[in-house]
Design a protein that fits this description.
Elements lengths: L4 E3 L5 E5 L2 H4 L7 H7 L13 H15 L4 E5 L2 H4 L8 H16 L3 E7 L5 H6 L7 H16 L5 E6 L1 H9 L11 H25 L4 E13 L5 H14 L2 H8 L1 E4 L2 E4 L9 E14 L9 E4 L16 H12 L4 E7 L9 H17 L4 E6 L19 E3 L6 E3 L1 H12 L1 E3 H7 L4 H4 L3
Parallel strand pairs: 2-3, 2-12, 3-4, 4-5, 5-6, 6-9, 9-11, 11-12
Antiparallel strand pairs: 1-15, 7-8, 9-10, 13-14
The protein binds beta-D-glucopyranose.
Beta-D-glucopyranose binds next to loops.
Amino acid sequence: MAKATIQFPRGFLWGTATAAHQVEGNNTNNNWYAWEEAGHTEHKSALTCDWWGGRWKEDFDRAAETGQSAHRLSVEWSRIQPERDRWDENALERYREMLRGLRERNMTAMVTLHHFTEPLWLTELGGWESDEAPLLFADFVRKTVSALKEYANLWVTINEPNVYGFMGYVAGIFPPGKKDLRVAFKVMTNMVRGHALAYRAIHEVQHEARVGMAHQYRSLVPKNRKSMLDRWAAKAQSSIFNNLFPRAVTDGKVKFLWNTVNIPEAAGTQDFMGLNYYSRDTVSFDLKMSGQLFGRLSYDENADLSGTGFIANEPDGFFEGLRWANRFGKDIIVTENGVEDASDEMRPRYLAQHIQQVWRAVNFNWPVKGYFHWSLVDNFEWERGWTQRFGLWELDVETQKRRKRKSADFYEEVCKTNSLSSEMVKKYCPEAMGKIFPD
Ligand code: BGC
């Protein structure tokens, strides 16, 4: 077969994404540290990738040398505001140094202001359950953006507020470990308020800012398409998990089952749509699952599963997510996409098949402007600790040594050529040829 190449538009951003608590190490003043200490996680984050100790430099070098033109990182609120009435200017200076590091490497910075963690003093006030949280968050955002604006103008206010709400307040797996739909709704409503205030604060401080959220889209399909109940459960789950936040920041209405809360100041507070996509579930109606709107989730029986079974390789669900994102009428940035795969057997095909979907979207003229792979280097995977490895580079947690995975070589070719070719697929994941470049 002749060489085939799918090419991306000029200026398309190629990068990876990370989050402060997952890579910095020694974050001891936030809700996740307390959660780890209380024994709720497989491992403790400890030093993680030691970015706070300076190893961000070598990892940014890796990213830059392999052709990545952007990086998405997050700042740790508990470092910048260790107590309610105290700012740590040294911490802000450290983040300025990191962002300067990206600029020196010709990389565009995207900064997330809240990625699952918050300072213990906020936890003591009740976290996002407290009606003070939105204002406190906006203060923190104003201070942080004022300090960092010289080096960044792409901001994600909150990462995956739907996952935060679901994992912390419905499934009880993230801190604070509650299982209460009513409280979940309160928390999510306050997050919408916090986002709206933060959106305005950022624009006041920086005119050229582009502000969005990183929404996790989960493709939820009825297990039996002929079953009305399965269809109902899939739709009910999707309307909350996928749609609550993007709708709220579009029209100012927070819809949760039969409740609607109007937050008019949240309308139109999104300059781009950040899309995080990992996988697709099938949903079957189950009376025992009342806490999850009667939907039981499972992967398709024939799914191509990752090492620990955590992720199914479902690129069609990604295309569906891109189409969904396009409906909100804003530029789209894929703020996360990736797979846990310590052996790196599945990642190359996962990567190739998902990049192909981005290209399909671009060809429909949907305004997809960039792709951030999760993640640059193995990092602390929340309650699952080190049992799952999402990095293009493998990390030896004991020695802090990094080893380049085959997927990183592959991604390097994609970033450097701004394309995906049949030669690359043949070289890194020949098993995916038939799906991407059929004869
Ligand atoms: C989160 C990341 C996490 C990734 C893989 C996303 O939901 O934003 O922090 O590491 O999933 O589980």
